[in-house]
Amino acid sequence: MATGFLADRQRLLWIVVLSLLLLTLVTQRNHNTNSDPRATLLVSQALVQHGTIQLDSLGEPLLQSYGYVIQQKNGHYYHYFPLGSALLATPVVAIANAAGVDMRQHEPTMQMIIVALCAIGILLLLYRTARLYLGRDASLALTALGWFGSAYASTLGTALWSHDLAVLFASLAIYLALRERPLTGKFALIGASLFLAYLCRPSMALLAPALLAFLMTRSWKTAIAAALVQGGLLMLFVLWSFHEFGQPLPDYYLPKRLEGTQFATALYGNLLSPARGLLVYSPFLLLPILCLPFLLWKQKRNLPLLILALGWPLLHYLTVSRFPHWWAGWSYGSRLMVDALPGLLLGTAVCLASLEKWRRPALALFAVLAAFSIFVNGYQGLYNTYALQWNAAPNIDEHPELLFDWSYPPFLNTQHRQQERLDRFHLAVMPPLQGKVRITYDEPNAGFDGFSVIENGFRWTEGTASTLSFKLENASTLSGRLSLQAGFLGSQRLAVCLNGTLVFEGAYQGGERDIRIQVPAGLLHDGLNRLDFALPDAHPPGTADTRILGMAFHLLAVD
Known about the structure:
The protein has helices at about 1-25, 40-50, 60-65, 85-90, 90-100, 105-130, 135-150, 150-155, 160-180, 185-200, 205-220, 220-245, 265-270, 280, 285-295, 305-320, 340-355, 360-385, 385-390, 415-430, and strands at about 70-75, 75-80, 435-440, 445-450, 450-455, 460, 465-470, 480-500, 500-520, 525-535, 550-559. It has about 550 residues and is an alpha+beta fold. The strands form two sheets. Strands 3, 4, 5, 6, 7, 8, 9, 10 and 11 form a nine-stranded antiparallel beta sheet that branches. Helix 1 (about 1-25) packs parallel to helix 7 (about 135-150), helix 6 (about 105-130) packs antiparallel against helix 7 (about 135-150) and helix 15 packs across helix 17 (about 340-355). It is globular and about 85 Å long.
């Protein structure tokens, strides 16, 4: 009777965890499907329909709209990012194609379906790994914390990144290596999992030596056989790369990505910065980092487990800190450290098994750190849109020094704090405009927040709200007449506010316009001025371009 009750209780808890997982995947507001993962499933579709990873059949105009994720090499078009995710997603895309679903129109939705499948697999493997050291309830609690309290939620749960399937196969390899019960073909599964993790994410190559070293202590025959399987698959990949690209590995897999010159800065940034610090966003991971060496060092025979649970994450941390772009662009939290989480969460399980014998204050502290981690990743990382806007304005790739600004951490960003941060930034770096003011679409001394990239003679507003910031000197000499030259995408309503005061409203049916606005005396002032554009009818242009566009800005004249 008691056993049946416990089983029913465990099922109920699993239903709760999986329901929360699926709920957050469906209701979250911070999707990244139009970031680096964009066009991943176009490669899957090309494999299904044409038997190639080349994207030439889509046509140059469409491919150009995908921007930096597409590269041209040897006269062909390719997706720039790792091949593994596209290859492994091919069966799902084949089923979708058979049902009439085209990735050119439905890739974001299909990405999230695959993300859900990956997430369930990662949770199950995390639970099974934790059960090797913990009881059922503690294992399920760690499983929930491992997802909602880490970059698993705030990165893996937002798009089909190359990390998703890499983490899935890394987790599978680790579980199989730790599992002592015999399993037919275990060596082949481990070797294939290690290779597939690498195929999805090249930095996962660092897992293989640590895991195989651990496996040698369990069964040297299994370790050698797994290494041979992985090595054989790697050789096939190299031969294919020579055939496809004329080089041993595709560009993304080459070691040239380790040519960073800010190693010391990146070491601090990836661990403790307010924007990318692993221990800032998931402080509960302090437990394995601080405790695991002491726990396992006392038992020398467990040294291989220490190498797997902590040595591999440490090597990964040192490696990604060598990347020139170590902050991973417009990311949230410690995205580049997500690949090492299977090891750190394994270490957490080992430590918790010992922590159960410690005093309650230690568990209470761990619970507080866990709650904060869930708030930062499972809530702010998924539902606070200003946490992502933090990267865009100011552009973090142009001003990486802001990664270390504790005054405005991304996980505490709000609409008010974002505007306050922008104003402070513009006041600090923007020189004043003098005399007759002519602000063109490419003016370097103005702030274009909520605008897209510079195009041929204009730049689009992106989203439903954009802000043009500029500093004036001797504003009292200006008459207060504004002349806005802009084009509109279809039917658009426009509202313009100057320094918080509504100065214009209008509606346009596409085309180019020259809009004259007379503003009240004194509204323009010395120092920073903000012109806010509200375009509630902004929409995608109806092509593969998924940006939300409204107004093409050419020029603002202030007389």
